[in-house]
């Protein structure tokens, strides 16, 4: 069931990229989902939001809450794409965009890919659709 939803999201993303290339005018699209808690940090929560703007720019926003302070690698399809810094408020976020500005990172990968947020030691604490087997 999850794979079918992910495939539909990839098709939607690909269709909006094609539309962007053809006309440079896109329909605003937003998809927000919660990540699964993999049991490493029992109170941890996270969301992934993907947005397409009218100018066809794409944006991926990740946010975690209720995790200990520290640095958390963000992996998309198994590749580290950035590191999230969690402060004393136990909240962290990371943002990617096709035309990055400020603290945004370059969105040069599929924002609907499999996302894992891990500890600096490599243990996955939050996952988009499947936690690793223990």
Structural overview:
The protein has 134 residues and is α+β, with helices and mostly antiparallel strands. The chain has one domain (2-127): Immunoglobulin-like. 16% of the residues lie in helices and 42% in strands. It has one helix at residues 2-23, and strands spanning 29-34, 36-37, 45-52, 58-65, 70-76, 79-86, 91-97, 105-106, 115-118, 124-127. The strands form two sheets. Strands 1-3-4-7-8 form a five-stranded mixed sheet, with no helix packed on it. Strands 2-10-9-5-6 form a five-stranded antiparallel sheet, with no helix packed on it. The chain starts with a helix and ends in a 7-residue tail after the last strand. Mean pLDDT is 86; it is low at 1-12 and 14-22.
Overview in brief:
This protein has 134 residues and is of the alpha+beta class.
List the helices and strands and how they pair.
Elements: H1 2-23, E1 29-34, E2 36-37, E3 45-52, E4 58-65, E5 70-76, E6 79-86, E7 91-97, E8 105-106, E9 115-118, E10 124-127
Parallel strand pairs: 7-8
Antiparallel strand pairs: 1-3, 2-10, 3-4, 4-7, 5-6, 5-9, 9-10
């Amino acid at each position: 069931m999850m794979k079918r939803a992910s495939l539909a999201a990839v098709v939607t993303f690909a269709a909006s990229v094609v539309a962007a290339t053809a006309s440079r005018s896109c329909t605003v699209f937003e998809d927000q989902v919660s990540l699964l808690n993999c049991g490493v940090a029992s109170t941890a929560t996270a969301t992934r939001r993907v947005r397409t703007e009218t100018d066809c720019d794409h944006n991926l926003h990740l946010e975690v809450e209720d995790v200990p302070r520290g640095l958390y690698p963000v992996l998309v399809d198994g590749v580290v794409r950035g590191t999230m810094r969690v402060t004393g408020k136990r909240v962290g976020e990371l943002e990617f965009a096709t035309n990055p500005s400020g603290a945004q990172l370059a969105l040069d990968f599929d924002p609907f890919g499999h996302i894992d947020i891990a500890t600096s030691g490599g243990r996955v604490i939050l996952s988009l659709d499947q936690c690793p087997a223990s």
